[in-house]
């Protein structure tokens, strides 16, 4: 009997704390489950342009409604970046009207990174090597001085004539509001296609992290300088980021590009640059989050 | 005496005083440590060549098993990391020079187990918490495009990871040690485990060490 009374007194004394704890637990249980890609939204394309097989993962907003039209954000190197960005598309209200499309190499999954049950270090190492080779071919144009890379135009054709038409036919999309996002070699490609196809752009918004200007004796810098000298109108919203501990020439050449960009101040271009206190690979997550916020919420 | 001479004298006096204080302090704290290790390190991620010093406090010690906590400092130096260096034809067209360093302070805890009847071979496994300061500075000159950029960066990183070692006891005082230090900081981030990226990132350090262990006192 005495124990029951003591318990009641304890409850009365700590009722505020208990209510606060209850509130915190309620809020925690209300957090959304991370959005998943449904099996029917995993597509495949065997490209006639690149000769490679791609797996395309499409993350639809929570209350996807076919009577509305949705902006589309494409991310290169989906095998690295798609999974952790699903959380961002779950939590940020400004991404509620954006379809998120990740591009993977179908035959070279990264089992550990994707949480597969068939985790295997040897598969990971082998597929990492293959992905490294393939993305160098797909994203980089022209060939480097050692003969590597060089398939960037074919990859662009894949995007233009195979991937984007498939997405636009399958889902309810706003064809005037596309974003492309890339990191490292992916960043090179997204900026390369911006300058190369400026008269007929596929993408309006570009997120470009740790760009690799050094490729092919600064070919992309040459393109940028030519566009700035010719006062080319650049009708884009561009977010650029750099990790301060990415390799030295990544950073020194990004600084060079920024100086020339600020001097030229091209018509039509809305842009932002941020540098992060981190290294090359760690910066991607932070950079893409900030890039998405700039593109869709600023 | 001009002002710069006063500054020089003050600097020398400060260095001597601090050296005396640190030596005395080191002598005092050395009582708490039963063994020490020094090693030459080959690093992946950040600077390449380093030296590590580590002092170990033994919580328990028997013929077979030693449990310990340790404090270590390691300093790495290397040429500045750049992608151009991997392509000789590109490197010939640019002039890139500079250096990078990373200095690590770590607190380890773990155990050392002696194998076989003679107990000459010991395996150790430790986990660490710590941090390091990374720095790089360099110049980039490219004649054709008249690029002339200086760039430097400085940043402190928190760090955690593991260290595995094999020690061969030469005698009761000295042993020869091989180690593998591996930062776990890269897990849970964007790239997760992508082994080839180690060489490009100063923020996920792996290093191989070869060195010597000393018994500071008989137990």
Identify the most extensive interface between protein chains.
A-B, 40 and 40 residues
In total, the number of strands of chain B is 8
> What kind of oligomer do you see?
heterodimer
Instruction: Summarize the main sheet of chain B.
Output: 8 strands, antiparallel, barrel
Class by SSE composition of chain A: alpha/beta
What percentage of residues of chain B falls in helices of 4 or more residues? 10-25%
Number of domains of chain B: 2
Overall CATH class of the largest domain in chain B = Mainly Beta
How many whole angstroms does the radius of gyration of chain A measure?
Answer: 23 Å
Q: Mean pLDDT of chain B, as a whole number? A: 85
Largest β-sheet summary of chain A: 8 strands, mixed
What is the spatial order of strands in the main beta sheet of chain B?
1-2-3-4-5-6-7-8
Low-confidence stretches of chain B: 187-193, 195-200
Helix content of chain A: 40-55%
Count of discrete alpha- or pi-helical segments spanning 4 or more residues of chain B: 2
**What proportion strand of chain B?**
over 45%
Mean pLDDT rating of chain A:
90
Would you kindly provide a written description of the structure presented here, covering whatever features stand out?
In chain A, 47% of the residues lie in helices and 20% in strands. Chain A is of the alpha/beta class and 298 residues long. Chain A starts with a helix and ends with a helix. By secondary structure, chain B is mainly beta. Chain B contains two helices and eight strands; from the N terminus they run H-E-E-E-H-E-E-E-E-E. An eight-stranded antiparallel β-barrel of chain B has the order 1-2-3-4-5-6-7-8. Chain B starts with a helix and ends with a strand. Mean pLDDT of chain B is 85; it is low at 187-193 and 195-200.
What are the key terms here?
heterodimer; A: 298 residues; alpha/beta; 2 domains; 20% strand; B: 219 residues; mainly beta; Porin; 8-stranded antiparallel β-barrel; 2 helices
């Amino acid at each position: 009997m005495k124990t029951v009374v003591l318990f009641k007194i304890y409850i009365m004394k700590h009722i505020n704390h208990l209510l606060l704890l209850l509130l915190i637990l309620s809020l925690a249980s209300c957090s959304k489950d991370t959005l998943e890609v449904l099996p029917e939204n995993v597509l495949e394309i065997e490209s006639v342009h690149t000769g490679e097989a791609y797996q395309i993962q499409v993350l639809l907003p929570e209350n996807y409604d076919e009577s509305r039209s949705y902006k589309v954000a494409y991310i290169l190197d989906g095998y690295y970046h798609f999974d952790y960005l699903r959380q961002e598309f779950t939590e940020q209200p400004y991404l509620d009207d954006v379809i998120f499309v990740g591009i993977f190499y179908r035959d070279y999954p990264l089992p550990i990174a994707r949480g597969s049950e068939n985790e295997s270090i040897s598969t990971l190492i082998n597929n990492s090597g293959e992905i490294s080779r393939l993305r160098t071919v797909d994203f980089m144009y022209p060939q480097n001085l050692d003969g590597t890379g060089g398939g960037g135009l074919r990859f662009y054709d894949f995007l233009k004539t195979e991937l984007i038409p498939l997405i636009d036919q399958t889902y309810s999309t706003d064809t005037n509001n596309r974003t492309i996002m890339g990191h490292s070699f992916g960043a090179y490609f997204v900026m390369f296609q911006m300058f190369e196809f400026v008269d007929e752009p596929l993408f309006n918004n570009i997120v470009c992290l740790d760009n690799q200007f050094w490729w092919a004796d600064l070919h992309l810098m040459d393109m940028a300088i030519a566009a700035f000298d010719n006062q080319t109108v650049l009708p884009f919203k561009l977010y650029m980021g750099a990790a301060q501990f990415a390799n030295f020439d990544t950073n020194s050449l990004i600084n060079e590009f920024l100086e020339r960009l600020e001097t030229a101040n091209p018509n039509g271009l809305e842009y932002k640059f941020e540098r992060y206190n981190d290294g090359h690979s760690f910066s991607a997550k932070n950079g893409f989050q900030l890039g998405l916020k700039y593109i869709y919420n600023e | 005496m001009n002002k710069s001479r006063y500054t020089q004298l003050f600097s020398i006096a400060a260095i001597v005083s601090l050296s005396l204080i640190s030596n005395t302090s080191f002598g005092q704290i050395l009582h708490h440590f039963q063994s020490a290790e020094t090693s030459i390190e080959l690093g992946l991620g950040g600077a390449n060549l380093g030296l590590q010093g580590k002092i170990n406090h033994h919580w328990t010690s028997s013929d077979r098993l030693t449990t310990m906590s340790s404090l270590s400092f390691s300093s790495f130096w290397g040429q500045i990391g750049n992608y151009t260096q991997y392509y000789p034809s590109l490197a010939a067209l640019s002039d890139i020079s500079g250096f990078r360093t990373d200095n690590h302070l770590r607190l380890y805890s773990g155990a050392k187990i002696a194998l076989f009847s003679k107990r000459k071979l010991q395996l150790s496994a430790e986990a660490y918490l710590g941090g390091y300061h990374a720095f790089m500075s360099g110049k980039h000159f490219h004649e054709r495009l008249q690029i002339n950029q200086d760039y430097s960066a400085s940043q402190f990183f928190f760090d955690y990871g593991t260290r595995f070692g094999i020690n061969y006891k030469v005698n009761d005082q000295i042993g020869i040690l091989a180690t593998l230090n591996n930062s776990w900081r890269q897990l849970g981030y964007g790239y997760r485990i992508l082994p080839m990226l180690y060489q490009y990132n100063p923020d996920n350090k792996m290093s191989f060490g070869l060195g010597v262990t000393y018994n500071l006192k008989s137990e």
